[in-house]
UniProtKB/TrEMBL annotation, chain A:
Species annotation: Stieleria bergensis
PANTHER family the UniProt entry points to: CYTOCHROME C OXIDASE SUBUNIT 1 (PTHR10422)
Pfam family, one: COX1
Protein name (record): Cytochrome c oxidase subunit 1
EC category name: oxidoreductase
Residues annotated as domain Cytochrome oxidase subunit I profile: 34-548
Membrane topology designation: Multi-pass membrane protein
Keywords annotated in UniProt: Electron transport, Heme, Iron, Membrane, Metal-binding, Oxidoreductase, Respiratory chain, Transmembrane, Transmembrane helix, Transport
Residue ranges crossing the lipid bilayer per the database entry: 45-67, 99-123, 143-162, 182-208, 220-248, 268-291, 303-324, 336-361, 373-395, 407-433, 445-466, 486-509
GO CC annotation: membrane
EC number(s) recorded for this UniProt protein: 1.9.3.1
InterPro entries reported for this sequence: Cyt_c_oxase-like_su1_dom, Cyt_c_oxase-like_su1_sf, Cyt_C_Oxase_1, Cyt_c_Oxase_su1_BS
Molecular function terms, GO-annotated: cytochrome-c oxidase activity; heme binding; oxidoreductase activity
Superkingdom to which the source organism belongs: Bacteria
TrEMBL record, chain B:
Underlying gene: ctaE
Full protein name: Cytochrome c oxidase subunit 3
Location(s) in or outside the cell: Membrane
Transmembrane region(s): 47-67, 87-105, 117-136, 166-187, 370-395, 415-434
Organism domain of life: Bacteria
Biased composition (Basic and acidic residues): 8-21, 230-257, 266-277
Organism field: Stieleria bergensis
Family: Belongs to the cytochrome c oxidase subunit 3 family.
Heme-copper oxidase subunit III family profile domain boundaries: 43-435
Length: 585, 435
């Protein structure tokens, strides 16, 4: 598993206190113990299940879109099987609803809560050395708000669909005869869920740090979560009021957004993107945090430029509030405004690039173990870099005129959201899975899933860059025959991507039935979650954890006898000549 | 926000590994180490929540700023329909409630349980008075058709069309609740359930204070029949505004008398308004101002009424040709596309007001009321939520839950209540005092 195995009979600091039966999964039993749990780990697991189901639904809708676009005149949604469900609705209307619900469910139900709510809930208190988040009941209520919001979305899906695009732009959203009110109510409620999670994490990180856990001893995942939480708290309320006004616009015609009543649709776009651009960073920042952990742990090397990576998270969070206008270069803004927004947009790329360079510098001369999480992390760096760089084309005023609302945009944000966030989420799940459930999955299967996801993703979305730059507009149900080759390639890629995701799911679920228990410190990590057993006990730490440098791997060595990583006491460290070059930094 | 871990098993607890089990008071949630940590967490959480609240309202303040900047005259005109007295009373009531709330926090720190409860109950009464007054304001406007853009149906010829008694509808749930609380009070008194009676008694008075607010509102807000009395009594500047744009001038002897006194010109003007657009009211102002080259901000307020009206009318006549022309252009634009029409410069958009296009006309006045209802409505929802948590606090304070080490909830709710008060303090001048 690791290239950095060394043989040492050093004393094992395996936390022996809890027997395997006394972990958070088993300390109480029955459905009610889960429904009313206040344990952040169980809430994290429930989120994990919830967002996975949402992802499955939205992913199937995506496959539906791609299959439909196999033929220039549309194919899949015309087929008898689909017609049996959709009835006599015109195919193009169905297409509009499919891509809208794909986008809305992916954004609001999956990507935004994926890493912060699912992994974050599980990890933030443990990494911090706390027993729980500051407000456990609020935490549970944000999960149920999520469920409630999801219920609204599903109702919208079952009622009369939604065809406004996930952005709910007026004036179409005020006139569309689909379930706009149901869906916006759902998004409104999900916003509260997100706010409460963010609020909880900020307070937890501020007030629940145990002695010794200074700001600069915090793992970078916590910095990223903190930055994300700032955005969640500051931006989401604006979305809330925007959606509320939109509902009022539809019901009472308040004339704020609807031009028919003297409202201004561009005001809606400003309001909407004031949330939704920062929301893009809600989606990607936690992924940055995950990748920082993964790269450092699996390279067995201190993260390069810790403070820069930490500060760049905060910088991205703050700069992210100033760039919303770049979604509206073609909507009618003054030239001066567009130039300012364009310049600010470029400035965001600086902290993002700092992170990428630091990850690469961390890997440089590290002792890299090509484990499943690490493979995902490398895939992330590759895809995110492409996604980030193509963003610069869209932030440039002149090129954006050509690329706006084309497949280029679609490819760009899928590189960031799927190639970035989804891949980081999967990498994180594979990384912490042994910690969460105490079971180790098949590494071969995991790496195979990563490879399939990588190939499938590239085949799906690289052609879309070409399609977009050649003029294929997004959100169209039909297209010119000249685009067919690339569309078909993209559709085939999406099937490979889907296969890869199913393999990942299968590998993970299969591991739950294996009898072998994962060791406490699966990967040789130095952050606090690896100091407790796998799965963690109910209150995380039976004794106050000794907080140390989260990226100091020198004391953590591979013990080939017990076949696990162990922490050696500093005085029992190997002499320098015995110590392999790669065992530490 | 105290949290007790229900699912916490005893053997975990006995593990004595946490190192602080020796004194873990009841009010201290298990995952906190010290009461200070718990208090600080709660307070930080509350402040963050207030930040989200401010941002939540900021969207509407932003909309207010945008639309007022585009159509200052609509805002000035429509603002006349709001009763400054009622707004001022509500401001005073909320300020006073903030004072009692702050005092309640202090009293809970000093463990003066009775005083805490009494002060919280007073705060609740103020909140109810506020809602009572608001109910009168709302029902009055609904009856007159002063509604958001799409529903706006105000007609100056018939400003008080027969309709349902909105005030009664709004009061209905409060009446039910009051009766319920009364029955609860009587029942708990009869069964000698001492604590329940202790809770029900102040709550009954809290409920009653809603009707106090309604009474206060109806006394100060003129009745539907003699609305124009209010119009003239509302101050000289007010009357000037009303007489020329105001609807109540018609069908009411009092106001009509005033109008006649203003001179023959005004009579002409009213007739003209009738012929051109019977339903035109506030929207007429912008056109007048466009012609009169008077700055849009309230510089006209202090001018003498007769002079002002004459000058306005003169400029209307002078500009009527231009206006017709622009209106024709305007209608073409509207036919072409709503969105394009929308992005006009200030000057052109002013002429929209002169258009007789019904939808456009209504919505121009209606957008003020849209924003008014959105902002005050969301604010009222916050008052209702505040009432909910204050009732919870009242019960807890009667239960003597709070002491010098644990008064966090009172403090947090106090912060929330001050924010709700503060938002109203911004809303009051922005809505009521545009002159």
């Amino acid at each position: 598993m690791s290239a950095g195995k060394i043989s040492s009979g050093s004393e094992i600091d395996d936390p022996g206190y809890p027997t395997p039966e006394e972990n958070y999964l088993t300390n109480s039993k029955g459905l009610l113990s889960w429904i009313f749990t206040l344990d952040h780990k169980r809430i994290g697991v429930m989120y994990l299940v919830g967002v996975s189901v949402a992802f499955l639904v939205a992913g199937l809708l995506a496959i539906g879109i791609r299959l439909h676009l196999m033929s220039p005149d549309g194919w899949f949604l015309e087929t008898g099987a689909v017609k049996a469900i959709t009835g006599d609705k015109p195919t193009n209307d169905v297409y509009n609803q499919v891509f809208t619900l794909h986008g809305a469910i992916m954004v609001f139900l999956f990507i935004i809560p994926s890493v912060p709510a699912a992994l974050g809930n599980f990890l933030v208190p443990i990494m911090l050395g706390a027993k729980d988040v500051a407000f456990p009941r609020l935490n549970l209520s944000s999960f149920y708000l999520w469920m409630f919001g999801a219920f609204f979305f599903i109702s919208a899906l079952l009622a009369s669909g939604l065809d406004t695009g996930w952005t709910f732009y007026t004036p179409y959203s005020t006139t569309s005869n689909t379930s706009v009110i149901l869906a916006t109510s759902g998004a409104f409620i999900l916003g509260f869920s997100s706010i409460f999670t963010g609020l909880n994490f900020i307070v937890t990180i501020n007030t629940m740090r145990p002695p010794g856990m200074t700001w600069f001893r915090m793992p970078l995942f916590l910095w990223a979560t903190y930055a994300t939480s700032i955005i969640q708290v500051l931006a989401t309320p604006v979305l809330g009021i925007t959606l509320l006004l939109l509902i009022a616009e539809r019901t009472m015609h308040i004339g704020i957004f609807d031009p028919q009543y003297n409202g201004d649709p561009v005001t809606f776009q400003h309001f909407f993107w004031f949330y939704s651009h920062p929301a893009v960073y809600i989606m990607i920042l936690p992924a940055f945090g995950v990748i920082s952990e993964l790269i450092s742990v699996h390279s067995h090397k201190r993260i390069f430029g810790y403070r820069f990576v930490a500060y760049s998270s905060i910088a991205i969070a703050l700069l992210g509030f100033l760039v919303w206008g770049h979604h509206m270069f073609t909507s009618g803004m003054s030239p001066v405004t567009t130039i300012i927004f364009s310049a600010l947009t470029f400035s965001v790329s600086v902290p993002s690039a700092i992170k990428v360079f630091n990850w690469l510098a961390t890997m440089y001369k590290g002792s890299i173990s090509l484990t499943t999480p690490m493979v995902y992390a490398i895939v992330f760096i590759f895809l995110f870099t492409i996604g980030g760089l193509t963003g610069l084309h869209l932030g440039t005023l002149a090129t954006d005129q050509h690329l706006h609302d084309s497949y280029f945009v679609v490819a760009h944000f899928h590189f960031v959201m799927v190639g970035g966030t989804l891949v980081a989420f999967l990498g994180g799940v594979f990384h912490w899975w042994p910690k969460m459930f105490g079971k180790m999955y098949s590494e071969k299967g995991g790496i195979a899933s990563a490879a399939l996801v990588f190939i499938g993703f590239l085949v799906t979305f690289l052609p879309q860059f070409i399609l977009g730059s050649r003029g294929m507009p997004r959100r169209y149900a039909t297209y010119d025959p000249e685009f067919q080759t690339l569309h078909v390639a993209s559709s085939i890629g999406s099937l490979i991507l889907g296969l890869g995701l199913f393999v990942a799911l299968f590998v993970l679920l299969k591991s739950l039935f294996s009898k072998e228990r994962a060791p406490a410190n699966m990967w040789g990590g130095a952050t606090l979650e690896w100091a407790c057993t796998s799965p963690p006990p109910f209150y995380n730490f039976q004794r106050a954890p000794a907080v140390d440098d989260p990226y100091d791997f020198t004391d953590i060595v591979w013990d080939s006898v017990s076949e696990r990583y162990v922490r050696v006491e500093p005085e029992r460290k190997l002499a320098p000549e015995e110590q392999p070059a790669h065992a530490g930094e | 926000m105290a949290t007790s871990e229900a699912g916490h098993s005893a053997d975990q607890h006995a593990g004595d590994a946490h190192g602080h089990d020796h004194d873990h008071p009841d009010y201290l949630a298990h995952h906190f180490d010290t009461p200070e940590q718990q208090f600080d967490s709660g307070k930080l959480g509350m402040w963050l929540f207030l930040v989200t609240e401010v941002l939540f309202f900021s969207g509407m303040f932003c909309a207010y700023a945008i639309f007022r900047a585009w159509r200052p005259e609509v805002f000035e005109g429509c603002s006349q329909f709001l009763n400054t007295k009622l707004g001022a009373i509500n401001t005073g009531v909320l300020l006073f409630s903030s004072f009692t709330m702050a005092w309640a926090v202090r009293a809970s720190q000093l463990e003066e349980h009775k005083k805490t409860a009494a002060l919280i109950a007073t705060t609740l009464c103020c909140a109810m008075v506020f809602l009572g007054v608001k109910a009168v304001e709302y029902s009055h406007k609904w009856a007159m058709g002063l509604l958001p853009a799409g529903l706006f149906s105000y007609d100056e010829n018939n400003p008080h069309p027969p309709g349902p008694n909105w005030l009664l509808y709004i009061c209905m749930p409060f009446i039910v609740i009051t009766i319920g609380v009364f029955l609860w009070m009587v029942f708990s008194w009869a069964t000698k359930a001492k604590f329940q009676f202790q809770c029900a008694k102040p709550l009954f008075f809290v409920c009653l204070s809603f009707f106090g607010g309604v009474y206060l509102g109806t006394v100060l807000e003129p009745k539907v029949e003699d609305h124009a009395v209010h119009a003239s009594a509302d101050g000289h500047a007010d009357a000037a505004e009303h007489a020329e744009g105001d609807p109540h001038a018609e069908g009411d002897s009092h106001a009509e008398g005033e109008a006649e006194a203003a001179g023959a010109d005004e009579g002409e003007h009213t007739e003209e308004a009738h012929e051109a657009a019977p339903a035109e009211e506030e929207t007429e102002e912008p056109v007048i101002e466009l012609g009169s080259v008077v700055p849009k901000s309230g510089t006209m307020v202090d001018t003498s009424r007769d002079l002002e009206i004459q000058r306005k009318l003169a400029s209307v006549e002078a500009n009527s040709a231009v206006r017709d022309e622009l209106n024709a252009l305007e209608r073409q634009d509207m036919n072409a596309s709503g969105a394009i029409t929308y992005h006009q410069t200030d000057d052109t958009s002013n002429t929209i007001a002169g258009s007789e296009e019904d939808v456009m006309r209504r919505s121009r006045a209606g957008v003020f009321f849209s924003i008014y209802y959105c902002m005050t409505g969301v604010h009222a929802i916050h008052i209702l939520a505040g009432i909910g948590v204050l009732v919870w606090l009242l019960v807890r304070s009667l239960r003597k839950d709070f002491n010098r080490n644990y008064y966090g909830p009172v403090d947090y709710v106090g912060l929330y209540w001050h924010l709700v008060d503060l938002i109203w303090i911004y809303l009051f001048p922005l809505m009521y005092l545009i002159r």
